[in-house]
């Protein structure tokens, strides 16, 4: 019997970047392939608790705050002010470390799947010569002139309907690409040092040109963001990568939360995911007061510091905790108010619940705009999220039309392939015939 094939998955970021890769790991593992996930050390426990092999991938949290000379909250505050922070201070500053760790983890692997933003891992995949798939977890990272993402501060015409509008959007896209490439000197110097051929691709954002060395997956619903006509020629958009924990390690709703949920009407759930609690500001205080003004029950999923503070002031119609599984909680909510991270957005879409999105940075404004445009919820700028605006928006969300639209959308995405498309690809490049939809194969 031959050696089992092995797939390396390399990712970086918050839990919203880790959980999708765990979901891919489970899908690939079900096909009889071995899987290793390379990620920062702070996520080692989350990965290994799922029975998935772990490999270290720098930078770690301490590497980043040490290089910046600030604490973690300070790093997040810098990130909110500088749209190029992640590229400059993480992906490029630690380019060599990420490259070395990915290449080390790739020893013995038969194929590599990388987070499309993780330039060091993408370079290592190229240098390894192994079959490679790049994954975009959000539509913003495939900049389109035909169907553009809301990309602050880029002044796209979001719904172009003329040749002039398309031409204008192409010009905007070109300026974005130029701006990114002006920051990529370290990247190109490192490529030359590795002896890799010269390239005009920035490996950070893909602007629709085919990269023959890899395949490209947009792991989100085509109903949320269809594949665009000017997107990468080698790209498929099969669906969201919903993360299902193994039964033996599954995090359940706590007994106290379950009792609260079933002791009254469906509550509003307020959450800022795993990132934004570091810079929550007055989000939870505004949220609590808005829910009270509307006479609604509320659950506040807050960071540890906020949760400790809020516990002292809640009443019988409010519940505070630092975490809870979104896939179990959201279907029991009346609506979900959150920061717009792609993982949280996807879980609310799957639960069929209206959403109010209050974006902080990055791809989050685009998710709010897409939810609004689809009639599944509303979006408010962070600077506009106050008692008056939150109360008015939440009151509007309780119109039955949003709930009906959200439930219909949830039904429509249940048949999508999501991570199974990547599992098909892994089987295919490993020499095993894939069993899912042939239209989704890219190998």
Automatic annotation (TrEMBL):
Write out the transmembrane intervals.
none
Give every Erythromycin biosynthesis protein CIII-like C-terminal domain span: 305-411
- Which residues, if any, are the signal sequence? none
- Recorded GO terms, molecular function? hexosyltransferase activity; UDP-glycosyltransferase activity
Q: Which domain of life is it from?
A: Bacteria
* Start and end residues of each Glycosyltransferase family 28 N-terminal domain: 7-60
Any keyword Glycoprotein? no
One GO BP annotation is: vancomycin biosynthetic process
Which is one Pfam family of this protein? EryCIII-like_C
What UniProt keywords are attached to this protein's entry? Transferase
InterPro entries given in the database record: EryCIII-like_C, Glycosyltransferase_28, GlycoTrans_28_N, UDP_glucos_trans
Put simply, this protein is called Glycosyltransferase family 1 protein
Species name: Methylosinus sporium
């Amino acid at each position: 019997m031959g050696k089992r094939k092995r797939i390396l998955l390399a990712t970086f970021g918050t839990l919203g970047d880790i959980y999708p890769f765990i979901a891919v790991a489970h899908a690939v593992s079900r096909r009889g392939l071995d899987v290793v996930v390379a990620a920062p050390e702070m996520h080692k426990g989350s990965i290994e608790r799922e029975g998935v092999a772990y490999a270290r991938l720098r930078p770690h949290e301490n590497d980043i705050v040490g290089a910046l000379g600030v604490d973690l909250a300070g790093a997040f505050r810098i990130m909110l002010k500088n749209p190029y922070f992640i590229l400059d201070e993480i992906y490029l500053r630690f380019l060599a470390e990420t490259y070395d760790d990915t290449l080390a983890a790739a020893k013995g692997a038969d194929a590599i799947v990388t987070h499309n933003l993780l330039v060091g891992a993408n370079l290592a995949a190229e240098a390894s010569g192994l079959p490679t798939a790049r994954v975009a977890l959000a539509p913003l990272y495939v900049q389109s002139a035909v169907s553009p993402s809301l990309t602050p501060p880029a002044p796209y015409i979001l719904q172009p309907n003329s040749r002039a509008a398309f031409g204008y959007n192409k010009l905007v896209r070109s300026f974005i690409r130029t701006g990114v490439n002006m920051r990529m000197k370290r990247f190109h110097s490192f490529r030359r040092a590795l002896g890799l051929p010269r390239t005009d691709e920035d490996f950070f954002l893909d602007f629709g040109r085919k990269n023959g060395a890899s395949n490209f997956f947009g792991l989100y619903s085509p109903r949320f963001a269809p594949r665009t006509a000017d997107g990468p020629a080698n790209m498929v958009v099969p669906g969201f990568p919903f993360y299902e924990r193994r039964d033996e390690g599954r995090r359940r709703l706590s007994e106290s939360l379950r009792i609260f949920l079933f002791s009254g009407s469906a509550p509003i759930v307020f959450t800022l995911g795993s990132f934004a609690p570091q810079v929550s500001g007055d989000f939870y205080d505004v949220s609590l007061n808005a829910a009270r003004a509307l006479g609604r029950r509320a659950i506040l999923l807050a960071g540890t510091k906020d949760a400790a503070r809020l516990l002292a002031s809640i009443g019988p119609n409010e519940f505070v905790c630092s975490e809870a599984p979104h896939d179990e909680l959201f279907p029991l909510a009346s609506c979900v108010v959150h920061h717009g991270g792609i993982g949280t957005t996807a879980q609310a879409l799957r639960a069929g619940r209206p959403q109010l999105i209050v974006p902080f940075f990055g791809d989050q404004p685009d998710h709010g705009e897409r939810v609004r445009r689809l009639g599944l919820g509303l979006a408010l700028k962070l600077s506009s999220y106050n008692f008056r605006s939150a109360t008015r928006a939440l009151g509007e969300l309780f119109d039955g039309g949003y709930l009906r639209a959200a439930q219909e959308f949830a039904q429509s995405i249940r048949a999508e392939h999501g991570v199974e498309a990547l599992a098909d690809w892994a089987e295919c490049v490993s020499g095993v015939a894939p069993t899912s939809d042939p239209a989704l194969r890219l190998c």
